[in-house]
Amino acid sequence: MYVDKHPQPSADATSLPDLLAAAYGALDVVTTVAVAAGHETGDLHIAIYDYNLENPKLWLSVGRIDASGSFGPDGKAWKACFRPYLAYAINDLCAGK
To answer: What's the predicted TM-score (pTM) here?
Structure first.
Protein backbone atom coordinates (compact mmCIF):
# COMPACT_ATOMS: atom_id res chain seq x y z
CA MET A 1 0.00 0.00 0.00
CA TYR A 2 1.18 3.54 -0.70
CA VAL A 3 -0.20 7.05 -0.56
CA ASP A 4 0.62 9.47 -3.35
CA LYS A 5 1.35 12.98 -2.05
CA HIS A 6 0.15 14.57 -5.30
CA PRO A 7 -3.55 15.39 -5.88
CA GLN A 8 -5.12 12.89 -8.25
CA PRO A 9 -5.39 12.67 -11.14
CA SER A 10 -1.87 14.01 -11.53
CA ALA A 11 0.10 14.82 -14.67
CA ASP A 12 3.27 15.24 -12.61
CA ALA A 13 6.08 13.05 -14.00
CA THR A 14 7.22 12.24 -10.47
CA SER A 15 3.90 10.91 -9.23
CA LEU A 16 4.27 7.74 -7.21
CA PRO A 17 2.21 5.58 -9.58
CA ASP A 18 4.44 6.62 -12.51
CA LEU A 19 7.65 5.94 -10.59
CA LEU A 20 6.38 2.55 -9.41
CA ALA A 21 5.17 1.66 -12.91
CA ALA A 22 8.64 2.41 -14.28
CA ALA A 23 10.11 -0.06 -11.75
CA TYR A 24 7.43 -2.71 -12.28
CA GLY A 25 8.91 -6.21 -12.05
CA ALA A 26 12.19 -4.97 -10.60
CA LEU A 27 11.18 -3.44 -7.28
CA ASP A 28 14.05 -4.23 -4.94
CA VAL A 29 15.87 -2.13 -2.34
CA VAL A 30 17.85 -0.20 -4.98
CA THR A 31 14.78 0.76 -7.01
CA THR A 32 12.77 1.49 -3.83
CA VAL A 33 15.48 3.93 -2.70
CA ALA A 34 15.40 5.56 -6.16
CA VAL A 35 11.60 5.80 -6.13
CA ALA A 36 11.63 7.43 -2.66
CA ALA A 37 14.23 9.98 -3.80
CA GLY A 38 12.47 10.62 -7.11
CA HIS A 39 9.16 11.18 -5.34
CA GLU A 40 10.89 13.12 -2.54
CA THR A 41 8.89 11.19 0.02
CA GLY A 42 10.28 10.45 3.44
CA ASP A 43 11.26 13.60 5.30
CA LEU A 44 11.67 12.05 8.73
CA HIS A 45 12.40 8.39 8.06
CA ILE A 46 12.16 5.60 5.51
CA ALA A 47 12.09 1.90 6.36
CA ILE A 48 12.37 -0.76 3.65
CA TYR A 49 11.72 -4.36 4.66
CA ASP A 50 12.75 -7.50 2.78
CA TYR A 51 11.02 -10.48 4.38
CA ASN A 52 13.20 -13.08 2.65
CA LEU A 53 12.75 -16.25 4.73
CA GLU A 54 16.47 -17.10 4.92
CA ASN A 55 17.82 -13.62 5.64
CA PRO A 56 15.19 -10.92 6.24
CA LYS A 57 16.62 -7.39 6.17
CA LEU A 58 15.68 -3.84 7.06
CA TRP A 59 17.10 -0.69 5.51
CA LEU A 60 16.59 2.53 7.45
CA SER A 61 17.21 6.16 6.58
CA VAL A 62 16.66 8.96 9.09
CA GLY A 63 16.31 12.64 8.20
CA ARG A 64 17.58 15.52 10.27
CA ILE A 65 16.85 19.21 10.72
CA ASP A 66 18.84 22.19 11.93
CA ALA A 67 17.90 24.50 14.81
CA SER A 68 15.46 26.42 12.61
CA GLY A 69 13.69 23.26 11.41
CA SER A 70 15.20 23.26 7.92
CA PHE A 71 16.31 20.07 6.13
CA GLY A 72 19.76 21.49 5.37
CA PRO A 73 21.06 24.55 3.54
CA ASP A 74 18.90 23.89 0.47
CA GLY A 75 15.85 22.82 2.51
CA LYS A 76 15.92 19.20 1.35
CA ALA A 77 19.40 17.59 1.45
CA TRP A 78 18.84 16.22 4.95
CA LYS A 79 15.48 14.61 4.20
CA ALA A 80 15.55 10.86 4.78
CA CYS A 81 14.97 10.18 1.08
CA PHE A 82 18.32 11.81 0.25
CA ARG A 83 20.40 10.44 3.13
CA PRO A 84 22.31 7.15 3.45
CA TYR A 85 20.55 3.96 4.48
CA LEU A 86 21.71 1.61 7.22
CA ALA A 87 21.15 -2.11 6.60
CA TYR A 88 20.16 -4.47 9.40
CA ALA A 89 19.59 -8.22 9.55
CA ILE A 90 16.13 -8.56 11.10
CA ASN A 91 17.07 -11.85 12.76
CA ASP A 92 19.94 -10.08 14.55
CA LEU A 93 17.64 -7.27 15.70
CA CYS A 94 15.09 -9.78 17.05
CA ALA A 95 17.90 -11.60 18.87
CA GLY A 96 19.05 -8.37 20.52
CA LYS A 97 22.32 -8.16 18.61
So the answer is: 0.78
